[in-house]
Amino acid sequence: MKVRKRLGEMLVEADLLTQDRLTQALAEARRAKLKLGQYLVRHGVVNEGDIVDTISRQIKVPKYQPSEYPVEMDLARVIPADMAQKSQVIPLRKKGSLVTVAMVDPLDLDTLDLVEDTTNCEVEPVIATEQQFNSLFGAIYGKYTTFDGILEDMEEMQVNVEEEADTGMPGIEDVEVSSLAGLAEQAPVVRLVNSILSQAVREGASDIHFSPEKDYVSVRFRVDGKLQAVPSPPRSMFLPIVSRLKILSNLDIAISRLPQDGRFTVNMGSNEINVRVSTLPTIYGENVVMRLLNMSLGMYSLDGLGMSADDMARLQPMIYKPHGMILSTGPTGSGKTTSLYSILKE
How far apart, in whole angstroms, are the C-alpha atoms of residue 187 and residue 152? Predict the structure, then answer.
């Protein structure tokens, strides 16, 4: 079903936006290189649930209901993982020549055409929230499926690193700097680092932690203040990965006994990500922590922070007072700085 309607018009008709606010939002979304719906949700202008309800009601596209679409792993063959991720489309059901797909943006006719060409089937869209999409992608394709082929390639690579007998810590001084630089530029290493970064951005991670242990490497993302483990590379490949990150951050790859700090910027689609990198020597190698800041999102409004109505009622009078102090506490990635800048914006 292909109905050419614009999201902004639907939201104005539903009294969720005024025409003036729509015009302003369209201009700001273009500057931020975001789709209108993404901009409205991320800046707290319109609730994502209201957008989903409006689209579903006005163009008669059903909403995704988990109970109606049990996960079928074989559906991963219908649409390639890379295409599903890039186009934000997930296969839910295939019956004969009809494929039902979940989409965050069912108004994207180009994606519907692409799916039809790829599957050679008629396509029926179902609208899903971003959270539902991410859950579906993880269930059907495996949350970090893009790592699998890369890790297989890396296992074929041989890296000879002498380890100190007393600590087991890789001795970077025993490896020529030119060799490290060469290993860091090999395709599997580059692909894995890029894949980890892009996956972290998609998951909304604020940090990436690389922690070497005696027999393995721990890789974790911090999402909503909580660390989540992800598939890790072979222990023998840790040194080239660290070297790759150091090269990107303009750090000295020949130094492993002292802490170092650097930064770099990467562009992922419409997102500009500023990455701060810190290394710290430990008994089994260097811990690496990467702090991610999406420069394209801009500052949240107070309404977009997700506070309860009671908390908002207590906070707002406080921020207009000429004196005093607001104490902001919480773990890394919990939103302290975001809250501060939202208050300053207000």
Answer: 12
